[in-house]
Write a structure and sequence with these properties.
about 0% strand; mainly alpha; 3 helices
Length: about 80
């Protein structure tokens, strides 16, 4: 692995390398693993917005959760193939 890569890029490559990948059989587990690693690096899991936050902060946190969940749905779909 290239030592000059960022920790995020290394985590994503590691997820890909550690997943079984058989393109000919339609196994998309590695693609799902890469998506999960990428979402963990870019959009970390955050707690549900709470009432202490102003409207802007609540919207920001809600959007992060929404985008994270949408990407994880794609990973689930790929894994189910």
């Amino acid at each position: 692995m290239n030592p000059q890569l960022s920790p995020a890029a290394k985590a994503i490559l590691e997820a890909y390398d550690n997943s079984p990948w058989e393109y000919d059989t339609g196994d998309f587990t590695a693609c799902a693993a890469v998506l999960r690693a990428a979402v963990d690096e870019v959009i970390s899991s955050v707690p549900t917005p709470c009432g202490d936050y102003d409207g802007y902060a609540q919207g920001f946190l809600a959007a992060r959760i929404k985008y994270r969940n949408q990407i994880l749905v794609i990973a689930d779909e790929l894994e189910a193939q």
